[in-house]
């Protein structure tokens, strides 16, 4: 099932809405990180910058064929060879990766549907001990230029419930200006 309200505006506009280096710095995505899984590559907005920072592979998934095609094309154009982009309905079928294979799972701009803890549970299964689910989302206490309706957006405080349901613990919450918040849940 495609997450409701998860369609994308035009690429350049979407990518003007994030301070990507700040977000990746605050989430501690760096050379110490090996493999990463990502739900919803979209245009590859975060996929490629993450791949450039880490030492492993970004396994990224999207339910929309044009998003997979765009991410693969960008990775090839930019010579980023550690991206593996696959068409998959992750809500329905999970990540399809080996248990415990990833240092991090990225759930960016996606956790605005009923029972997100079920997805966080699927993400936790592919984390190694000490690995992290990293989620970002549009703040609901601000007027933002994009994002799902305010009543659908998760809040930083929801992370405790996600973590509890998935056997994780909340190890960081942060502002990601101008429009987002982030949380890290550690296995
Ligand atoms: C709002 S976009 C965010 C993309 C990217 N994470 C970012 O922040 O730039 C959400 C993406 O998730 C994809 N998506 C929605 N439901 C999905 C599902 N069930 N399985 C895989 N991808 C899904 C959409 O097609 C879309 O590309």
What tags apply to this protein structure?
187 residues, alpha/beta, Rossmann fold, seven-stranded mixed β-sheet, 26% strand, binds S-adenosylmethionine
Could you explain the architecture of this structure?
- This protein is of the alpha/beta class.
- The protein has one domain: Rossmann fold.
- Helix content is 29%, strand content 26%.
- The protein has seven helices and seven strands; from the N terminus they run ααβαβαβαβαβαββ.
- A seven-stranded mixed β-sheet has the order 3-2-1-4-5-7-6, with helices on both faces.
- The radius of gyration is 15 Å and the shape is globular.
- The mean pLDDT is 96.
- S-adenosylmethionine binds next to strand 2 and helix 5.
List the SSEs and their pairings.
Layout: H1 11-15, H2 20-26, E1 36-39, H3 47-53, E2 58-62, H4 65-77, E3 83-87, H5 90-93, E4 102-108, H6 116-125, E5 127-138, H7 159-166, E6 169-176, E7 180-186
Parallel strand pairs: 1-2, 1-4, 2-3, 4-5
Antiparallel strand pairs: 5-7, 6-7
Helix pairs in contact: 6-7
This protein binds S-adenosylmethionine (SAM).
The share of residues in extended strands comes to 25-35%
CATH architecture: 3-Layer(aba) Sandwich
Helix % is 25-40%
- The CATH H-level superfamily is Vaccinia Virus protein VP39
Secondary structural class: alpha/beta
The level 1 CATH classification is Alpha Beta
Q: What spatial form do the alpha-carbon principal axes imply?
A: globular
């Amino acid at each position: 099932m495609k997450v409701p309200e998860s369609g994308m505006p035009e690429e350049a506009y979407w990518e003007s809405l994030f301070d990507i280096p700040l977000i990746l710095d605050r989430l501690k995505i760096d050379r110490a990180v090996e493999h990463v899984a990502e739900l919803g590559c979209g245009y590859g907005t975060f996929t490629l910058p993450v791949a450039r920072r880490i030492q492993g592979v970004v396994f990224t998934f999207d339910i929309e064929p044009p998003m997979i095609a765009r991410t693969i094309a960008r990775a090839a154009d930019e010579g980023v060879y550690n991206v593996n982009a696959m068409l998959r309905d992750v809500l329905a079928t999970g990540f399809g990766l080996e248990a415990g294979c990833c240092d991090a799972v990225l759930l960016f701009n996606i956790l605005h549907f009923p029972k997100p803890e079920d997805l966080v549970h699927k993400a936790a299964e592919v984390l190694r001990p000490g690995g992290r689910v990293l989620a970002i989302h549009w703040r609901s206490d601000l007027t933002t230029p994009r994002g799902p309706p305010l009543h659908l957006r998760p809040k930083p405080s929801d992370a405790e419930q996600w973590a509890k349901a998935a056997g994780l613990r909340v190890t960081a919450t942060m502002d990601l200006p101008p429009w987002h918040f982030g949380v890290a849940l550690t296995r």
